[in-house]
């Protein structure tokens, strides 16, 4: 999606200039790669809904290839890659090319030999059911998934959510959230989550086409069908998990397809109940960073509690001669994002 206002505030430009002055000689504890909104399809270039941004469906694979080449030659090899959702475009469904397109992109990722953590976005659900995605786009090493059995007992009508966490190094934890947990896309019509989503959209969006935002400006714009929200079970699971991280003095990075801070994105791309997630994050001292995709223009904001909210520029709307990916260098006292092309360098100090 695109925005009409700029999110690059004074604070972020100061951080960028500080980042460029930083000492490169210190060895990071580990590194990881980040890429968002590849939206690959073997079709000619097109445009976004409002015809303001060009989309390079076929070329997005070349941009992924260039990212892979860079990651493979990093002096400290990334321990993993975060794929922030919308790995292939919804157009694939129309051409019955969903599986072929997904296989093409996954084969490209496989060339690095680096583990990939896949976040699910709206375009995953335009192409596949949740059951298909569990089989074909399930991250490896998901050893700490949300305990579905426990939740099923409490809410037998609930379908599975795709949320988990992992620790790539002592004192560091990453949490993958399911931003389409409560949603009209990807949920079966008889599920609890679908009915909750319908109620939310009916309350906030009176349009016949629920992909059309209910307002021209402001946060109400987020109540569209192509967004979603986090269910109560997932929020409680996150809260419990962060309490444990607080106790263990961990540094936690949370990722989701949808951004959760209004100053890090165009409001039309915000998660419906972004405020529920923010209030949980504010009640825990362990969270240092939140990473998302969806808004192809990208964004950044450091919030009042010091959490860095990064929205990554989307590959799909990146010109063929440019790039959109990053490598994050993790240190004891900060993370350093080394951006490529449209993704700027940033120094992300822990508060
Ligand atoms: N302003 C709008 N009014 C109506 N439909 C829209 C609007 N913006 C997007 N859509 C539709 O919503 C869906 C998701 O939009 P899209 O731009 O493809 O999302 P993404 O940014 O995730 O690629 C598409 O079917 C698109 O046509």
- Write down how many β-strands occur, each being a DSSP E stretch of 2 or more residues: 15
Into how many domains do the coordinates divide?
1
What small molecules accompany the polymer chains?
adenosine-5'-diphosphate
Low-confidence stretches: 1-21
Under CATH, the homologous superfamily reads: Metallo-dependent phosphatases
The SSE string, one letter per element, is HEEEHEHHEHHEHEEHHEHEEEEEE
Total DSSP helices = 10
CATH class: Alpha Beta
- Which class best fits the helix and strand makeup? alpha/beta
Intertermini distance:
31 Å
CATH topology: Purple Acid Phosphatase, chain A, domain 2
Major beta sheet, specifics? 7 strands, mixed
Q: What Rg is obtained from the alpha carbons, in whole angstroms?
A: 19 Å
Secondary-structure blueprint:
Layout: H1 10-20, E1 30-35, E2 46-47, E3 54-55, H2 60-73, E4 80-83, H3 91-94, H4 98-110, E5 115-118, H5 122-127, H6 130-136, E6 144-145, H7 148-154, E7 164-169, E8 172-176, H8 192-204, H9 232-247, E9 251-255, H10 274-282, E10 287-292, E11 299-302, E12 308-311, E13 324-330, E14 334-341, E15 346-349
Parallel strand pairs: 1-4, 4-5, 8-9, 9-10, 10-12
Antiparallel strand pairs: 1-13, 2-3, 6-7, 7-8, 11-12, 13-14, 14-15
Helix pairs in contact: 2-4, 9-10
Bound molecules: adenosine-5'-diphosphate.
């Amino acid at each position: 999606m695109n925005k009409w206002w700029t999110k690059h505030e004074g604070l972020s430009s100061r951080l960028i200039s500080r980042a460029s002055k930083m000492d490169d000689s210190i060895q990071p504890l580990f590194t990881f790669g980040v890429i968002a909104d590849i939206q690959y399809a073997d079709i000619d270039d097109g445009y976004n809904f409002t015809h303001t941004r060009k989309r390079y469906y076929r070329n997005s694979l070349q941009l992924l290839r260039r990212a892979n080449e860079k990651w493979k030659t990093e002096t400290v090899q990334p321990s993993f890659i975060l794929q922030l959702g919308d790995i292939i475009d919804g157009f694939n469904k129309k051409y019955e090319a969903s599986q072929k397109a997904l296989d093409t992109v996954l084969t490209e990722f496989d060339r690095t030999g680096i583990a990939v953590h896949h976040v699910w976005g709206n375009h995953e659900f335009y192409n596949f059911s949740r059951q298909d995605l569990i089989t074909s786009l399930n991250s490896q090493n998901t050893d700490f998934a949300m305990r579905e059995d426990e939740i099923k007992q409490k809410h037998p009508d609930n379908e599975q959510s795709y949320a988990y966490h992992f620790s790539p190094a002592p004192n560091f934890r990453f949490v993958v959230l399911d931003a389409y947990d409560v949603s009209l896309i990807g949920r079966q019509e008889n599920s609890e989550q679908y009915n909750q989503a319908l109620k939310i959209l009916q309350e906030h969006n009176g349009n016949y086409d629920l992909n059309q935002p209910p307002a021209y400006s402001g946060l109400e714009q987020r109540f569209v069908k192509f967004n979603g929200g986090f269910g109560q079970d997932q929020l409680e699971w996150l809260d419990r998990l962060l309490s444990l991280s607080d106790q263990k003095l961990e540094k936690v990075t949370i990722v989701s397809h949808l951004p959760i801070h209004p100053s890090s994105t165009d409001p039309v791309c915000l998660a419906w109940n972004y405020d529920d997630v923010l209030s949980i994050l504010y009640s825990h001292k362990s969270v240092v960073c939140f990473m998302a995709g969806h808004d192809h223009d990208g964004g950044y904001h450091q919030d009042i509690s010091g959490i860095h909210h990064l929205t990554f520029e989307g590959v799909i709307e990146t010109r063929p001669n440019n790039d959109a990916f990053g490598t994050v260098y993790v240190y004891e006292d900060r993370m350093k994002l080394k951006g490529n092309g449209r993704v700027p360098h940033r120094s992300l100090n822990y508060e």
